[in-house]
Amino acid sequence: MKKTIYILICIIVLFYTVETVYSASDPSGILRIKTDGASPKEHQALSMTVDSIPSNSPLQAFCIGWNFTFTNQEVSSAPVSVYVPLSGINTGGGTRTYTFPLTTGWTREFTGIEGGKSIRDLVDNKAVYDKIIKEGCVVHANAKILKYKYTEGKPAPMGTYSNGANSPPNVFADTWKDIEYIDVNGNRCGNFTEFSETFKTNTKSDYYELSLTLAAEPIPLPKVALELPENNSTVPLGTAVTFRGYGTGCHHIGGFVDGKIYGTEQVNPKDDLNKEMTYEVTVILNQAKDYTFQIKGRNTALAEDADSVIAVSEIHTVHVVAPEPDKGNIHIKCLDYNTNKIISDSTISNISYGTSKIISGPEINSYCAKGSYLTYGGKASLIPPLLYMQPGVLTQSVILSDTDQNAYLYFWYEEVKGPVALIDAPQKVQAGNEFTVSATRSYCKQAGAVITAYDWSTGLKQASGTVCFENPGTYSIKLTVADSNGLKGSTVHEIEVTPPTPAANINISGKLKENRKIVISAKLSNTPNFYPMRWDKTEWYIEPDIGTGATWDFGVKLRDGTVIKLLQNTDQRFLNGQSDFFFQARDSGIYKVKLSLTNTYPANDTITGTIAVTEDKPPVVVLEAPNINLRENENPIDGTKRKFGITAISDKSYSPDGDTIGKRIWSYRYNSSNNTDSMGKDIFTDDITKYRYTGALSEPFLPEEGSRLLVKDDNSETAELWWYDVGLYRIDLIAEEVIPFEDTIKELLLPSDIRSSVITGW
């Protein structure tokens, strides 16, 4: 059986969807230091802001963590290395900021860290790490990137778990060489060689070998505060008062009475000067005069040290009076219920003997009274234990006498802690886009208290809602929450609002093949909600990439039904204002598409893409028939006459690219003279081509007819050749594909565009 197959060329349009992996747009400024502005000490975090870059679907890659090393040879010969896994993998597009606090106490937003709230939480040798951070160091950062594959429209990690655990090593990149490198023989090596060149170049430069120098912590500015004794208080001669103050950022603090140092300075016993230290002594006031009290603190050991600064508190004055005859004093001390330390103390002097005096606990902001205790036999310097407290007794009746000249009245208070305001909101948004702000993570420190009110600077009065800024800039959002005790807490969140530039997107759908109707659409383009797209300003331009096989032999159909065949000099302005349209090409090659969009701000964006048009494969024709054929059927008129043969022929033709074969044309020839050419091949050129039998099947098949080809219809996959004469018969079959009406722009279709194949020679 001889076959001759003629193949015709067709077109397939491929437009790969583009997914994203995060990468920075400015390699020189990717890794940087961020502070939270907290007081008394700012906390630092490492921050990386990255944008999206393309990677061909269905393969994808996402950052699942970062490897950091912190080096200071003067502190430690070996650097501190730590891997920081992300608690959540973001598979969306757009800009993203990674923020990793260096130490505990960070007060602002941060990227979720799996297993901790700061890098320090994940470090094994925390003592060395703390010293390196304090003294300054060089920080190196390298991303950990994992391959993903799209399954049912969702990205799935190419490993056992989303954090990469138990995954094969060839799906990771821990260094830039794991992405791709060229070996000494010029071979491409690495785990991501199949990804696009843009992905590989940008990822290697923007995700690996990032570094910065973390400066040593500066010497903090000292701050001091005087708490006791209370300013402008009056006490009797001989009173022992508590002299208490606090300092932060201080190497040492000291107390000054009447402008002179009292006792010795107290040196900060803690390694971190930013941690608060307390100065506390007792001073007996044995002169009837006005005493002055003040706290001073210095941030260095000596005044001549570099960056040395001294801080001074306000001055408190205490008036000391001599006792009058037949009069005594009531000493009132307010104590902390949890620590039993003095919150405040005061004295009511010159109270006449025998007079009943009702004393209530003074109001102290953010504290509530728990109980009291009265004694006449104490001393001003003594503080009774908590078990002496009479719970719920908030007033006492005091009567002084010549035997009880001094009363000591103690009130215990418990601190009522105010609520903590927390804001969840993005770091960066586009002008004109609504975004959500939430205060749901705000909480009350005080047991039993609940948040009763939310007050946002944007005007919101509930826990969460949406906000929209119409213009670019940097904005501050302030949140104040109030609790059931009437206390308030506030916080501020800064947000960067970028220009409302639309994001153009060229989306391709339909049957992507030669002479097929392809939808080119801009409807998946994005623009901020407040600034909708001006579709009437949309501009398109399509052209072939000459040299790839593409030609100007293509056309479009608009949504209103207008069909236009494009030529090289065709003005394409008719495409402007279209959000989508149909495209159809005849020749294979690369076609370039350009889209420009404008929104109502106005802002614009332009994107270019390519459509790879490939061959539409013709059908593959395959015939099957018996190799040996015998005359076994009786003559329908006279059984004594010679018999005839019936040969069943099956067509196994198929379309390799899924098209439908819609028509089959069967024919045959009989080499009646059995002649051959000089090469010994059978010659059928002098014989008549016969087609399917069209007569009535009831007509008997007689020897004088010679042969008959029975085919059921125009697309039958089987045929029968009835024959009387032995010899060579050649079966010819033309298999022709059909293009459904709904799959093509019929006005652009030519008869030659229908793909077919011919087989001859059984």
Automatic annotation (TrEMBL):
Domain PKD: 452-504
Coiled coil: none
PROSITE patterns xref list: PKD
SMART domains in UniProt: PKD (SM00089)
Protein name: PKD domain-containing protein
Origin organism lineage: Bacteria, Bacillati, Bacillota, Clostridia, Eubacteriales
